[in-house]
Specification:
By secondary structure, the chain is an alpha/beta fold. It is built from 15 helices and 18 strands.
C-alpha cells in the first residue's frame, strides 16, 4: 500500500526542517520527500498539519522485562541493587513474566517514539515473540554469565542458549529482529569462559552487547583482579575483534578511550540510570572527540524508571553542560544523531535512522500544537529541551502504524494489565 503524509514539518537527514512537506511511503520504504506534491497517486493520504515528522528513535541499551521490577531497590548502589533487589526476584521469573514485562516496556517505547532497541536478558525467546507481535525492531541477546569457578565452558547453559537463540533468529529470517551476542560484564564472568565465547562469536560473526566500566568499584576491582581495565580485559580476550556495543563507559580511562576508538566500539550513554544509581557521568565529550560513535539508552525500567528517550536526550544535554561548565557541548544535533542514525548504524540497520528516500519508513509524528512547543525558533533545540514523550501522536515502523492518538494498534492494554496483575501477585 502507498501512503502519503502531507502538510507536515519534516526533520531531514541533516536535521533541518522542511516546512509544509510531503512524505511518500510505498510498503515499508520512503519513496518521496519534498515540498511539492508528488505526481504519483497514493492509496491513502493522511493530513499531518501541525505535526513534526522525525525518524523513529533507537534505544541502544535496555533490559525490557525489568519493567516488572520498577521501583525496587531505589537508593542502593549498583552492587547492592543487583544482589539485594534484582537477582533474587529475577531468579523467580517465568517465561510469562518476561513476556508481559517486555510488552509493558514496548508500550512505553512506542508511545514515546522508539522504534528499535538493543536488549540483553534471559528467556530471550519470550521477548522476541512480543517484539514480533508488536511490530517493533530489536537487537536481542541472551547474555552469558559465569561466576561458578567449577563451571566449564561446555556446561555453561547460558552460552548454549546464546548460540541457540542466534541460530533460531537466523532461521526465522525476519529482518526486524537481529540476534546479538552478549556478555553481562567483566565482574560476572571468568576469563576462560569469555575467551572461548569470543572465539565462537568470531567464527559465527555478529555484534556483542556488554556492560563496561559502569561504576568506579567495578572498574578498580577489575584492575586489582587482572592488572588491567575492563576495556583492556575484553580486548585481550578477543571480544573487540567483533563490533561491540558497550553500555555506560563511565570510568573509562584515556588509554581505554583510544582502544575503543581504534576498535570502532559503540558507547551507550545512560544518563538517568547512571545518576539514579550514583554511578557517575560518562565522559561523553572525550569519547566524541576521539571519533567514537555514541548512542543513548534508557537501561532497564528498574534503574531509570522509564523507557522515554526524550528524557534521556534532555538529561544528556543539561547534565554535561552543568558538570563541565560549558553550555556549548552536547549540541541538539549531536543528541538527535545519537538517538537516530547512530543507533541504527550501531544495530547494523544501514537503511534506517533517517527520513530519506530509500530508507525504511520508521516515522514518528509529534504534535506541535501544544503550549510548551511554541514558539519554534529552533526545532532541534525544541526536540532536545521541550518535547516530551507524551507529545508523540504516531509511531510507525516499516510503514505500519503501531501507535496513534493514544491508541495501541498492535498491543492490547487491557490484556497487558491482566497479565501484569497475575505476574505481580505471583512474584510479590
Amino acid at each position: 500500500m502507498k501512503l502519503l503524509l502531507k502538510n507536515a514539518s519534516i526533520l531531514t537527514e541533516d536535521f533541518t526542517v522542511l516546512a509544509d512537506g510531503f512524505l511518500g511511503i510505498d510498503g515499508d520504504t520512503i519513496c518521496y520527500l519534498g515540498q511539492t506534491r508528488p505526481q504519483e497517486t497514493y492509496d491513502r493520504e493522511k493530513d499531518m498539519r501541525h505535526k513534526l515528522l522525525i525518524p523513529g528513535l533507537y534505544n541502544l541499551h535496555s533490559h525490557t522485562p525489568m519493567s516488572l521490577l520498577r521501583g525496587l531497590g531505589s537508593d542502593l548502589p549498583l552492587d547492592r541493587w543487583l544482589n539485594e533487589a534484582m537477582f533474587p526476584v529475577e531468579a523467580r521469573l517465568t517465561e510469562a513474566d518476561v513476556a508481559v514485562g517486555t510488552r509493558l516496556s514496548l508500550m512505553e517505547m512506542v508511545a514515546s517514539g522508539t522504534v528499535s532497541f538493543t536488549d540483553m536478558y534471559d528467556r530471550t525467546w519470550a521477548t522476541m515473540q512480543e517484539v514480533l507481535d508488536c511490530g517493533m525492531k530489536a537487537n536481542l541477546a541472551r547474555p552469558i554469565m559465569a561466576m561458578d569457578p567449577a563451571e566449564t565452558y561446555e556446561n555453561n547453559f547460558r552460552v548454549a542458549e546464546s548460540f541457540r537463540f542466534a541460530k533460531d533468529v537466523q532461521t526465522l529470517g525476519n529482518s526486524r529482529i537481529k540476534a546479538d551476542f552478549s556478555i553481562h560484564a567483566e565482574y560476572t564472568c571468568r576469563t576462560e569462559i569469555v575467551r572461548r565465547y569470543a572465539e565462537d562469536c568470531k567464527r559465527l560473526g555478529g555484534r556483542v552487547h556488554l556492560h563496561l566500566s559502569e561504576t568506579k568499584k567495578e572498574h578498580e576491582e577489575c584492575k586489582q583482579r587482572h592488572g588491567k581495565t575492563p576495556a583492556r580485559w575484553f580486548y585481550d580476550l578477543g571480544i573487540m575483534d567483533l563490533p561491540v556495543i558497550a553500555a555506560h563507559c563511565v570510568y573509562v580511562e584515556d588509554e581505554d578511550i583510544a582502544l575503543l576508538s581504534a576498535q570502532d566500539v559503540t558507547c551507550v550513554h545512560n544518563p538517568t540510570s547512571n545518576m539514579k544509581l550514583g554511578s557517575g557521568f560518562m565522559p561523553v565529550q572525550k569519547l566524541m572527540d576521539a571519533g567514537i560513535r555514541v548512542c543513548l539508552g534508557t537501561d532497564g525500567s528498574a534503574s531509570n524508571n522509564n523507557q522515554n528517550l526524550f528524557e534521556e536526550m534532555h538529561l544528556a544535554s543539561v547534565i554535561h553542560n552543568g558538570y563541565t561548565g560549558d553550555p556549548t557541548i552536547m549540541k541538539p544535533s549531536e543528541l538527535l544523531a545519537m538517538v537516530t542514525k547512530n543507533g541504527a548504524e550501531a544495530q547494523g540497520r544501514h537503511h534506517c535512522g533517517k527520513l530519506a528516500v530509500g530508507c525504511k519508513a520508521d516515522v514518528v509524528a509529534i504534535d506541535l500544537d501544544r503550549p510548551h512547543l511554541v514558539p519554534r525558533h529552533d526545532i532541534p533545540a525544541l526536540l532536545t529541551y521541550s518535547v516530551q514523550g507524551s507529545d508523540v501522536v504516531m509511531t510507525m515502523v516499516d510503514g505500519n502504524i503501531l501507535y496513534e492518538d493514544g491508541q495501541f494498534l498492535t498491543m492490547d492494554w487491557e490484556k497487558t494489565k491482566f497479565d501484569l496483575d497475575a505476574a505481580l501477585k505471583r512474584l510479590f
